Amino acid sequence: MEMNQFLTLFADSVDRLNQQVPAFENQGNQYKPGIGPYGEDNIVDLVINDIVSGTMPSNIHIRPGAPVRRELGLNNYVGVNGRAATPDLVVDNNLIEFKICRPLRDNGEREDTWFKKVFEPNPQSYSTFLDVIKLCRFRDQYDPERKWNPWVVVIGFERQNETDYILDQYFPDLYGHISTNMVQLPYRHFLSFTRDMGTRHPYHQVLKLYGFGY
Prior knowledge:
There is one protein chain. This protein is of the alpha+beta class. The chain is built from six helices and eight strands. A six-stranded mixed beta sheet has the order 3-4-5-6-8-7, sandwiched between helices. A two-stranded antiparallel ribbon has the order 1-2. α1 packs across α2 (40-52).
């Protein structure tokens, strides 16, 4: 499946699920209704199950375990520490790592660490660029025939008529600057999708989906 097609399905599914999912609960905390407060893994699980609507096809693997990674030829997919790593999603020959970009909390207050979680180039920060380094290391060292297409997908949420944290001002320009000049791993493809999800959640109202292919 081409990533443009997959991310179109992904964006449509997030928009649809936003109206359906119950309010997120975590460790005794209940958040406002809508998909925006959900965690990264929760969103990926919900979306993939929504897209396939039944038995998981053999070409889609959510966080594949070691046996599946060996079967797929991904046993050399490792983190910066050299330990085995697990991609968030495998779709056909696309290796995908996701990152949430959510400047505002459930109550509308600023999330103090959101910028660092997405843009800090130091791999020790566990930011988006830790995933970039993992993907590109595998590409360069273990995939000389370019069998796999490495992708980082940022799932962003902002308010309608946002004025303070307009994510399009950061993607792709700032992201690209960091990736190219600070991490020395320029992306090769960029895809962007926007869905106005309405006002079910007071702050996570617009989906901004950004895909960077390496």
